[in-house]
Write a structure and sequence with these properties.
homodimer, about 475 residues, alpha/beta, Urease, subunit C, domain 1, nine-stranded mixed β-sheet
């Protein structure tokens, strides 16, 4: 086992461009059968090229124009699609060690998940479980994600080791948690976590109150004030649970209107996950307060919850990203499954097959997610000056042909294994479907060990 | 291009056992990390073995017992899961050549699909497009499927070439179709098709009236009588469309009750696809008449249709299988995506997370599908005496670990690429993710040609 050291690799990223660049040459130039830019004009190039300098996109356009450029490294991805990496806007990646345990139970959170976390979550589990989960995410094309959990320092260390971009929140609850005796202990941990990681080129630390039903109004106000002081984001589960909705709707009309009564909480710092029990007034309030939304269609459906009015949030102009949720909630951690499900559930909800055409669905999985994380200016689409966060998708497979409409192919036919290479800030994270900076075998072995450690407690729980 | 010849390979299958077997020895013995039998007692073996003789399962049990048996071929699949192959109960595989065209249009069937079929469907397109689609299906673990289309002879030839098991129906409509000038021409084609393929060890031909809104009552009665004469199944789209429901519910109460007025149609010969616009009386009638149901959750959702009350059909004791629908409707042709979606949509529909636990969901994708095809006695579960239709799933990937509950892993976390080998009637169809009997490159090249042939017409249509 390795002891993580925070921040030691940060330098590698910021200097990558300087080391590799020749004067006036690109660090990397990739040509591909097609490039989807996801820019505001939906430009796509068939074939196309993308050039990278100092971690940013220095040019993108038709392949014929790329030939004249000088570059330190060239990749000819002639039968690949090049597109922005996926942005997963809400996860709990350290829960990978529990995936598949205690399924289909009506009161799963309180009966199984909270006890499991109390007994089993350690820094060691958090680190290795996160690293394991990040391999699945990176290999299926995710370049940025948002996460909230305990021992978030360990999640950050694993994220840095893999090389993905992330917004990471230390989870705060009123009662004791795996990493804090009480609320104020959690706040101390969070403060230290934020100080350790703030300014990292890929990782943004933030505060993550668990939910309106686990953090009281006084504590939520304290968190809002602290976020202001530290100039960080806030992440929270909002309007996800039936019992939560019943409790707050009674007195305040809705969960969101209850939260609006808490000083400073509803602001553009907030990334709210789920947002299931919302009415039209809540959607308008979400827009008015500048809140961003992480939509988790798979985990919500698996729990038998109502379908989030995601398309209505979009129509109202609310930044909306897609998300897997944690591996205990949504199981598969690839964004392909979420992207495929998202328009289907919205079409069912609104009984309208023309709603959310494929290109708009894909926007939510890329630029929409970046906007939800508050980094839409930096990533989520392929535009000159933005960070070079992109993926190559191998088209040489039966599920990927024929192509009449690239967006339809990506949204409805693409599967995780089609992703072959992944780049974050111009650095290669996945190369021909293998992790580039990580020993896959070691990570698999560590997960086998964690499973062994957890299984007797989990088996006892499920028998109880 | 190759001219298909029907039936020439049929002998290979029926004699495979005889050729390979030593006296009292198994033809094949596979050991695996786990075997899910899907039998009535949900037996699973960790680790387990499965033995095959003459195309049938000769034994299945704990691995420790397999060591004593003699076998011509042994496979040690130590980090694989062995389970029944998937059964896809409703497809139009020849439509792969059109996948992704003209998406998200409100009146897609009449505005785009019917004209496309009229102009572009030929025997050549049907054969190669089917072969292409079968590669995606086989490689993702489908061992049996039901299909209805035009030139179904070509679909059968492609199916035989690949080596899957199928129930194949020649599509019949009142008006002219790609392969018949009028209804009676279609019936003549169907009669010839059935005579050519009846008795094939893997392929069961049948009659497939398109839908209640494209085949009138007189013709439906004629089809029912012919099915009786020929002793074959009937496949039909039922209660799928809004306009269909409006038309028949007005006069008869429901689409199904309208069909019940047609002599001989609603019987245990019928496999009805979709069944969206049904009430409790229709569900009871479905059970009473012995009808089987093919549930297509992905294509229905993508079209913004109501969610089929699939769990209610199951509760009523109706045989229910899962299906992708055609590649133009559901796009991805892997059953993993459908299996993953099925319980989610049912849980959402009934607002009940405990509904359809993972093992029951998996049953619908395997044995339930076999029952829907009328072959539940022969395949769909791993039991001694049944056909050896099974798959190996590689567990050595990040999405497949850890395992606490095999059913949850298969239903919610498994993806198409995890399937490594596929066996139908003991014959290997896919070997370490490659088609065994098919030249993949040739099939890919033929699809590129078809796409080239179709694109100008399809582009013209979508601009119109």
């Amino acid at each position: 086992m390795r002891t993580p050291r925070y921040g030691q690799n940060a330098k590698d990223f910021s200097q990558a461009g300087i080391l590799a660049a020749l004067p006036e040459a690109d660090d990397l130039l990739v040509t591909a059968e097609a490039i989807l830019t996801l820019d505001s004009e939906w430009q796509l190039y068939e074939p196309g090229y993308l050039a990278v300098r100092d971690g940013r996109i220095s040019a993108v356009g038709p392949a014929s124009e790329g030939g004249r450029r000088r570059a330190s490294r060239r990749i000819d991805a002639g039968t690949s699609l090049l597109m922005p990496g996926f942005v997963n806007s809400h996860t709990h990646i350290a829960m990978a060690a529990f995936r598949g345990a205690c399924e289909d139970a009506p009161d799963r959170l309180t009966r199984y998940i909270f006890p499991m976390e109390k007994h089993l979550v350690t820094p060691d589990l958090t680190y290795w479980s996160s690293l394991f989960c990040l391999c699945e995410m990176a290999k299926s094309g995710t370049t940025s994600f948002a996460d909230m959990y305990y021992f978030e320092d360990e999640v950050a260390a694993a994220t840095e080791a893999v090389g993905l971009r992330a917004l990471l929140g230390e989870t705060l609850v009123d009662q004791g948690s795996p990493d804090a005796r009480d609320f104020s202990g959690g706040m101390d941990y969070a403060q230290g976590f934020i100080e350790a990681w703030k300014g990292h080129p890929l990782i943004s630390p933030c505060l993550a109150p668990h939910a309106p039903y686990t953090v009281d109004a006084r504590h939520l106000a304290e968190i809002a004030a602290r976020a202001e002081d530290l100039d960080v984001n806030i992440m929270m589960h909002v309007a996800e649970m039936d019992f939560e909705n019943e409790r707050f709707a009674m007195a305040s009309g809705s969960v969101l209107r209850y939260l609006d009564g808490i000083e400073g909480l509803l602001s553009s710092r907030l990334l709210a996950a789920h947002m299931l029990f919302v009415d039209d007034a809540d959607i308008a309030l979400t827009k008015q307060r500048g809140i961003r939304v992480a939509h988790c269609p798979a985990s919500n459906a698996k729990s038998g919850r109502p379908i989030c009015p995601a398309a209505r949030f979009q129509t109202a102009g609310v930044p909306l990203g897609l998300a897997t949720d944690g591996p205990l909630s949504g199981n598969g951690m690839d964004m392909e499954g979420i992207l495929n499900l998202f328009p289907k559930l919205q079409k069912v909800r609104e009984r309208n097959r023309a709603l959310l055409p494929a290109h708009e669905a894909l926007r939510a999985a890329t630029l929409g997610g970046a906007e939800a994380l508050g980094i839409g200016e930096e990533t989520g689409s392929l535009e000159v000056g933005k960070k070079a966060d992109f993926i190559l998708v191998d088209l040489d497979d039966f599920n990927m042909r024929p192509v009449y409409d690239w967006y339809s192919t990506v949204v409805y036919a693409m599967r995780p294994h089609n992703v072959s290479s992944v780049f974050v800030e111009g650095n290669q994270v996945v190369d021909t479907s293998r992790m580039k900076r990580i020993d896959e075998k070691e990570v698999m072995a560590e997960m086998a060990r964690l499973r062994e450690d957890c299984s007797s407690y989990i088996e006892g729980l499920s028998r109880a």
